Amino acid sequence: MKARIPGAGKGGNMMKKLQQMQEDMAKIQEEVENSEFSASVGGGAVEITVNGKHEVLKIDLNPDVVDPDDIDMLEDLLIAAFNESIRKASEAMEKGMSQAQGGLSIPGLM
Description:
This protein is an alpha+beta fold. The protein has one domain (about 10-100): Nucleoid-associated protein YbaB-like domain (Ybab, Chain: A, 2-Layer Sandwich), CATH 3.30.1310.10. Helix content is about 50%, strand content about 15%. The chain has a three-stranded antiparallel β-sheet with strand order 1-2-3. The chain starts with 9 loop residues before the first helix and ends in a 9-residue tail after the last helix.
């Protein structure tokens, strides 16, 4: 008769769960990186679209916002739109990673 060791086999199950979580996280990361996130500011005067890698894909400017005598306002609108679109992309990545972890807390992993 073999002696049964309490907890034996649980390590393999945990490794499978961790491997599945890692695969889910990689899939989510790829999905978010390939997604687009837009932010519009100034009542639609400026809109910036970025991808999940925080790369700018598109900038739309309303011609009325381009005032050679007030470049500072345009610069401020561009910064605001860029920062908001990046925030949206980062938020989507964090949400996706949190879902993939399923409440599992692993030190050093987010």
